[in-house]
Design goal:
Blueprint lengths: L1 H25 L2 E2 L1 H10 L2 E4 L3 H6 L5 E2 L4 H4 L1 E2 L4 E2 L2 H11 L7 E4 L5 H12 L5 E4 L2 H7 L25 E2 L1 H10 L3 E4 L3 H4 L8 E4 L4 E2 L11 H6 L14 H7 L9 E4 L4 H12 L5 E4 L2 H6 L7 E5 L2 H26 L1
Parallel strand pairs: 1-7, 2-3, 2-6, 6-7, 8-13, 9-11, 9-12, 12-13
Antiparallel strand pairs: 4-5, 10-14
Protein name: Thiosulfate/3-mercaptopyruvate sulfurtransferase
GO molecular function: thiosulfate-cyanide sulfurtransferase activity
Keywords: Pyruvate, Repeat, Signal, Transferase
Length: 334
């Protein structure tokens, strides 16, 4: 009996370990009830939305330092500001990333995941995300407030966890080695080079296109909202675990995986979800397509180039229409 148990012990231990890792990962994304318990424990609640939205109503006790995607990034390169600058922003806001931090924004907003990734990247390890955000909170009938929460300033060391991201140079080296799993979290049009957002369009060769919206129960929710086909964003809630596993079934959870998008924001959402599903080595390509697409020495499939002349012509035509509308309004007012 003991001999048989000894024979299967390694498999049992591996299964238990994998289950433990998966359970830890699944704790990263929380629901309204878990958010309430975190508030009771005294966790820091970070509302990553812009200040105007925050002041219109937020979860009681939540702090805000403005739109995380704007405040923490160089908007030209769409990369992080220098670490010392981010430290000053966090310190002034009282955001101690080494404490338990709950992050939220609007439901499904990838900038919430970007904020979570930022905490982890600079050395925090107790951060979690409330995916359904302020929308889920209101739907649950929970209270909001317009009163600003101000935390006492702190002084916290930020230590970059470089193993969580890859740079342009590292990405090219990993790609050339060949033993890499690449996920493109952009739209199908971006992937196919039809929607060009850098010097050129297309995608990294061998990358698998799984738009980050596919993580949602209804991936078309944003489009439906823009067309006023639905009145609210409940379709942006996450798929259940079984459906998410089906979505990423073609990927190997034991293989090194890099996720990219335009600038690393949408990739942060997919990366978090893959880790929740038990993927062991997942990284965000920080500069993403902005870095790869603008490097003409980097290989690309379905490659297209930005037609600057055609773009200028469209801008000129749009400006002419705006001028006509302004003239018409002036004539009407006279």
């Amino acid at each position: 009996m003991f001999a048989q148990l000894k024979k299967f012990l390694p498999s049992i231990l591996c299964t238990l370990f994998a289950t433990h890792v998966l359970a830890q990962g699944l704790d990263t994304i929380i629901d309204a009830q878990q958010m309430q318990k975190a508030i009771e424990r005294g966790a820091i609640i970070w509302d990553v939305r812009d200040e105007k939205s925050y002041l219109e109503g937020h979860i009681p006790g939540a702090m805000n330092l403005g739109d995380a995607g704007v405040v923490l990034r160089d908007m030209n390169k769409e990369d992080y500001l220098p670490t010392e600058q981010i430290k000053k922003i966090f310190d002034a806001a009282g955001l101690d990333i080494h404490r338990e931090v709950m992050v939220y924004g609007t439901r499904g907003n990838p900038y919430s995941y970007f904020a979570l990734h930022t905490i982890n990247y600079f050395g925090g390890n107790q951060a979690k995300i409330y995916h359904d955000g302020i929308d889920g909170w209101k739907t649950a009938g929970l209270p909001t407030t317009k009163e600003r929460t101000k935390l006492a300033p702190v002084s916290v060391a930020l230590v970059e966890q470089t193993q969580l991201m890859v740079s342009n140079e590292e990405m090219l080296n990993l790609y050339n080695k060949g033993n890499l799993q690449i996920v493109d979290a952009r739209t199908p049009d971006e992937y196919a080079g039809k929607d060009v957002r850098a010097i050129r369009g297309g995608h990294i060769p061998n990358a698998i296109n799984i738009p980050f919206e596919e993580n949602w129960q209804d991936p078309t929710t944003a489009i439906k909202l823009s067309k006023k086909q639905v009145a609210e964003n409940s379709g942006m809630s996450l798929k259940n675990t079984l459906d998410l596993k089906k979505l990423y079934a073609k990927l190997d959870p034991n293989k090194e995986t890099v996720v990219y998008c335009q600038s690393g924001v949408r990739a942060s959402e997919t990366t978090t979800i893959l880790k929740n599903l038990g993927f062991k080595n997942v990284k965000v390509y920080d500069s993403s397509w902005l870095g790869w697409g603008n490097n003409l020495n980097a290989p690309a499939e379905q490659e297209t180039f930005l037609n600057v002349g055609a773009l200028n012509a469209k801008i000129t035509a749009m400006q002419a229409k705006i001028n006509q509308l302004e003239d018409a309004l002036k004539a009407k007012s006279n």
